[in-house]
Design goal:
11 strands; 120 residues; four-stranded antiparallel beta sheet; globular; mainly beta
């Protein structure tokens, strides 16, 4: 049973940056694809970015391409989301997820989320 814990959220002004981190409880996560999802108030949860277990494939939602970068450190059982040029529409709860069988399309494990608020 994997446990995922996100950190790094907060309040940031438009145009600012944040780095989200997710720590996973077990080294078996190295065999999982890891992803970031978000849910804004009144909206459905959406996929933001995904990185393969081998660290060689990434994907991004069109709305964040060129602004967000996903990375992982398998030695530390961690995944990161570097967010630049943040916009008010990026405001959401951000969730980390782990997917053993698919490229983040059906994660079996989720964190509890961290709030990101972009506002002046």
């Amino acid at each position: 049973q994997l446990q995922l814990v996100e950190s790094g959220g907060g309040l940031v002004q438009p145009g600012g940056s944040l780095r989200l981190s997710c720590t996973v409880s077990d080294s078996s996560v190295r065999g999982y694809a890891l992803g970031w999802f978000r849910q804004a108030p009144g909206k459905e949860r959406e996929g933001v970015s995904c990185i393969s277990s081998t660290n060689d494939t990434t994907s991004y939602a069109n709305s964040v391409k060129g602004r967000f970068t996903i990375s992982r450190d398998n030695a530390k059982n961690m995944v990161f989301l570097h967010m630049n040029d943040l916009k008010p529409e990026d405001t959401a709860v951000y969730y980390c997820a782990a997917d053993l069988f698919y490229f983040c399309s059906a994660p079996g494990y989720w964190g509890r989320g961290t709030q990101v608020t972009v506002s002046s």
